[in-house]
Amino acid sequence: MTDKADAVRQMLREVLAPMIHADGGELYLVLSSKKELKLHLAGKLGGKPGTPATVSHVIQPAVHAISPKVKVTVTSGWVIAPGSERILPA
Question: Of all residues in the chain, what percent carry a pLDDT higher than 90?
Answer without folding.
Answer: 76
